[in-house]
Structure formats: C-alpha cells, structure tokens
Write a structure and sequence with these properties.
By secondary structure, the protein is of the alpha+beta class. It is built from nine helices and 20 strands. It has helices spanning about 20-25, 55-65, 95-100, 135-140, 165-170, 210-220, 245-250, 250-255, 275-285, and strands spanning about 10, 15-20, 40-45, 70, 80-85, 100-110, 110-115, 125, 145-150, 160, 160-165, 180-190, 195-200, 225-235, 235, 270-275, 290, 300-305, 310-315, 320-325. The strands form five sheets. Strands 3, 4, 5, 6, 9, 12, 13, 14 and 15 form a nine-stranded mixed β-sheet that branches. A five-stranded mixed β-sheet has the order 16-18-19-20-17, covered by helices on one side. It has a two-stranded antiparallel ribbon with strand order 1-2. Strand 12 (about 180-190) and strand 13 form a beta hairpin. The longest helix is centred in the N-terminal third of the chain and has 12 residues, at about 55-65. The chain is globular. InterPro entries: PsdUridine_synth_cat_dom_sf, PsdUridine_synth_N, tRNA_psdUridine_synth_TruB, TruB_C. Pfam families: TruB_C_2, TruB_N.
C-alpha cells in the first residue's frame, strides 16, 4: 500500500496516483480568469489593416486588464488609422467623440465598381474612362457641404431589424435609405491615371465608400475605394495614435502611461470650469448655477471640469449646468 503523507493520494491494488495540493484542497487546475481592474482613460489606437473594431477593443481590454471598454466609431477591417478606445469612465463620453469631426484619406481606384464599393467585393461594372486631375478637381465642389448619400448595401445600417450586410450576403436586393451628411473639406492629395488619393473632412455617418462611388459616377466612370485611412476622430489625430506593437512592448505602469485622461475626448465641446462644491453637487446628479460675467446662459452640449478633470457631461439651460452623464473621479 502506498504511503499517504502530507500530500494526499489515492490508491488501488498495485497502482497509486498522487493528488496535487490543489486537488487535495478542492481547487481546480483550470486556468484562472485574468483579474479585471477599474481603469479609466483613452487609448488612441492606430488600428492595423484586417482587424475589426470589435477585435481591437477585445485585444486592448485584455492587455490593460480593464473591466470596461468600448470604441468611438467603427472602422472597417480593411481601413487603418485612428480608433479611439475608451476605458472605464471614458466610455460615458464616447458619444461626444463619435459626434466629432472625422478626417479620412482614401484612394479611388478608377475603372471598376464592386459590390461592396471597396476591394473586398466582386467587380460588378467597369469603364475605360480614367479622369485627369483637372476633371476630378472640377467635380469635387459638388460633394462639399450638405450632400445626400445612399449608403453601401454592405454596411452596418439596420433594415427591418437586420444588419444590411447580413441581408446583402444572403443575396437580398436592398433599397438603402438615403441620408444627409456634411463634407466640410474634400481635396486631392495625389493623382495617377490608375488611382487618386483624396482627403475628406466630414461629419458622423459619412460613408467614404459611397463618396468614392458617387464621385466616379459623376465623372462618367466607375470606381471603388482601394485604401482607407482615418486620420482624425474628434480631438484625436494620427499624432496621438499608438500601435499594437507599442502597447505590447511595455507593461505595468509604463503601459498605463499610454492612456490619455477622460477629458481628452471632450476637446470639441465647450468647457465649464467649476469649483469643488459644484463638483459634488453635479456628481449627485443635480444642476448648478453658473456665475460670473462670462458664464454661458444656453448651450446644447458642454462638459464641466474641476482642475482639468472631467466631472460631468451636460447642457446649459437658463444659466444652469444640468448634468446628463456624471464622471466619477479617478483613483
């Protein structure tokens, strides 16, 4: 019979198996889930090609061990560039960032239209016409200001409760509802006979693939997006963007130091500076009266700050700041 000392064992005649200490105390040897922590701030992620926005959030949430994370504005897997990732209290400010100005750099490949209006889809129409620089420059003013777009069928818009891209992949013919968007700027960056790179400054909801398709059709040809890069979302730009390699290269406090404060996402909104007493009132969900010669009387959207730290998102009505979302203090 085998000897059963400090480490317990089980035995049968002629055969023994020693139990591990974890088994003895009833503990599982299965890998334990990584502990999640309260972490707040923004990571301006430089999303690589062929990674979805959802995959990016999942990867970075795991790397930072954050309890809560989200992104401010979906970027197609085939697009690169600025994808703001919000952690913790910063997720409350995501709508403010999503509503901010967007800047895209994109290539129009001339001579072929595709089912998806980018390189993923099959070619559905072709043209031998290759517009020159002058022709393109002449047509661009038609696409500045408030314009009407018909979004691509392969998009995340919901039709009867279903995602349009799911219906399109199932072979359904879709009647996509038109929408109005605003293009603040649209300029040629580079041009060759085969493709042209443009830069667009636009509002939330603009489909660059639809813009490329419509520009090509206005020039009497066909075209699709051959490359797409987002250079700005709200106050975040390429200059702030950090690659996945840079995040993985550091750990602990050095990794946390890559995060920007919650307030960094609110750069495009009016800031209302408050005192400590008012901060307590706002964090209880109550309005505060704004005093002083320059105090605003009416604002549709603003944020309140205490020593540069975000306290609340809200509006100013009749001289009172009224909180809509309260931001808990860091630490």
């Amino acid at each position: 019979m085998p000897f059963c000392g400090p480490i317990a064992c089980s035995a049968t005649w002629g055969r023994a198996r020693t139990k591990t200490n974890r088994e003895y105390f009833g503990l599982s040897d299965a890998p334990r889930k990584r502990a999640r922590r309260d972490l707040s701030g923004w990571l301006v992620f430089n999303k690589p090609y062929d990674m979805s926005s959802t995959e990016a959030v999942g990867k970075l949430r795991w790397l930072f061990g954050a309890k809560k994370a989200g992104h401010a504005g979906t970027l197609d897997p085939l697009a690169t560039g600025v994808l703001p990732i919000a952690f913790g209290e910063a997720t409350k400010t995501v709508p403010a960032v999503q509503d901010g100005t967007k800047v895209y750099h994109f290539d129009i490949v001339w001579g072929a239209a595709t089912a998806t209006d980018d390189t993923e889809g099959e070619v559905i129409a072709t043209s031998d016409i290759r517009p020159d620089h002058a022709a393109i420059a002449a047509v661009l003013p038609r696409f500045r200001g408030v314009i009407t777009q018909i979004p691509p069928a392969f998009s995340a818009i919901r039709i009867g409760g279903e995602r349009a891209y799911d219906l399109a992949r199932a072979g359904e013919k879709l009647d996509m509802p038109p929408r109005q968007v605003e293009i603040d700027a649209l300029e040629i960056v580079t041009h060759t006979e085969a493709r042209t790179r443009l830069s667009a400054t636009c509002s939330k909801g603009t489909y660059v693939r639809a813009l490329a398709r419509d520009i090509a059709e206005a020039l009497g040809t066909r075209g699709h997006v051959g490359a797409l890069h987002r250079a700005r979302v709200g106050g975040f730009t390429d200059a702030d963007a950090i690659s996945l390699d840079a995040v993985e290269a550091v750990e602990g406090p050095a990794r946390d130091a890559l995060l920007l404060p919650v307030a960094a996402g609110l750069a495009e909104l009016p800031e209302i500076v408050i005192d400590a007493r008012q901060a307590v009132t706002l964090r209880l969900g109550n309005p505060v009266l704004l005093t002083g010669r320059d105090a605003p009387v009416q604002l549709d959207a603003a944020w309140a700050s205490l020593k540069g730290e975000a306290v609340a998102l809200g509006m100013v009505e009749n001289g009172q700041f009224k909180p809509r979302r309260v931001i808990l203090p860091s630490g």
